[in-house]
Automatic annotation (TrEMBL):
UniProt GO molecular function: 6-phospho-beta-glucosidase activity
EC numbers, comma separated: 3.2.1.86
Annotated gene: ascB
Protein name per Swiss-Prot or TrEMBL: 6-phospho-beta-glucosidase
Annotated family: Belongs to the glycosyl hydrolase 1 family.
Keywords, comma-separated and alphabetical: Glycosidase, Hydrolase
Family matches, as Pfam families: Glyco_hydro_1
Active site annotation, chain numbering: 382
Organism name: Culicoidibacter larvae
Alphabetized SUPFAM superfamilies for the sequence: (Trans)glycosidases (SSF51445)
Keyword set includes Iron: no
GO cellular component: cytosol
Statement: the UniProt record of this protein carries the keyword ATP-binding: no
Amino acid sequence: MTQVKKGFPQGFLWGGATAANQVEGAYDVDGKGLTTADLVKFVPKEERTGVMSLDVNKAQMEAALKDVEGNYPKRRGVDFYHHYKEDIALFAEMGFKAYRMSIAWARIFPNGDDAEPNEAGLAFYDDVFDELAKYGIEPIVTMSHYEMPIALTLNYGGWANRKLIDFFDNYARTIFKRYKGKVKYWMGFNEINVIALSPYTGGGILSDTENADKLAYQAAHHQFVASALAKKALLEIDPEAKMGCMLGRMTTYPETCNPEDVLKAQFLDHFNLFYVDVLAKGIYPEYLDAYFAENNITIEKTDEDLALIKAYTVDYISFSYYMSLVASSKGGKEMTVGNLMSGIKNPYLESSDWGWQIDPVGLRITLNHFYDRYNLPLLISENGLGAHDVVEADGSINDDYRIDYMRKHIEQMELAIQDGVDLFGYTMWGPIDIISASTSEMSKRYGFIYVDQDDYGNGTLKRSKKKSFDWYKKVIATNGKDR
């Protein structure tokens, strides 16, 4: 008789996650080149035309390259570049077992196609990894998280150009060799599916490029090949290390049991999951070929590409989970917003300050769905609550809403493990307040650690603990039992 798994496994990787472009700052320090993220200008809420302020067109890019005084929040981050020792010490105080972070490609190769790497950039991450090792914190490293050297957009048109495969392979081999033995867990592209929703964010393709939406699928193919080559290189250089992929999960329910609604939800699920189907199964699914044919999308791919993708699949699957969506075959429904997608309002769920529908049970559904579909170890690499935090007169920040959000999601994680899911880690987003990916705001706060900075860069950058800090410390210390 099979014994039911109870509780979180020994060695479970509790921690937090950030991205270089949202946390590091120091955008022009020690030889770093400009990135696509450095050109995203802050747009006040009242001036936004949608939920995103991530996309950049040619005119905006040209203006941003000349603008040294404008409000480009991802250029400053929260200055982790100069505060990393302090921040990692705070992570260690919470008891972190893992820290998911990213390397800024332009710190290593400022233009992306440079003949030699930038030693100062390599040394910075050496220092970060050594500091993590001092506290026994396992780094989980994303190689490209919503940024790439802007020169690759200027000179090559971004990932729509096949030449980027070789540039990325050179970058991958450089960092694998440099950090061999220091990094056990790698992943290629953050939320790789975002390339179809925001070609600039995911692939460095300017938003006003002709047929940008169709080019995004060609760019995604190039990233699939680059991911396979990265796995190949990792096997050659550091065979003990693991290569994963990362998806922005958009769990979607049909509005009703009307078969037309179910079909709509299934279509959106395919649209979301095909990236992992390719990276984990090593083949393009038939439903994707059908979609391409119906929408007159032609992808140039060689037999060698397909052989590489088949031969070098990922070792584990990671994903972000913040909310669920609802699909209907009929229009005229009340909508809700999300980071990159909108859906019909779910009457059974509450919403965050930013309109994201809060659905802890959906996380258990997602974990079971992924494990049933792929049968690979899973990592929740992002999950958290963006909210307006208030600093009280005594300096305290009572973020009980964040504790409640995370407690409910952790409960569902434990139930999924009991269901039989192989879940090996949880790196919540993000342990310290950073610049928002979607809106470039500072006021949209996720952290257990408050950073004194506003949307316009004003503040002391002083770090202080929120109520959730000690709560998460207790969760980790008891391996999820006391929450």
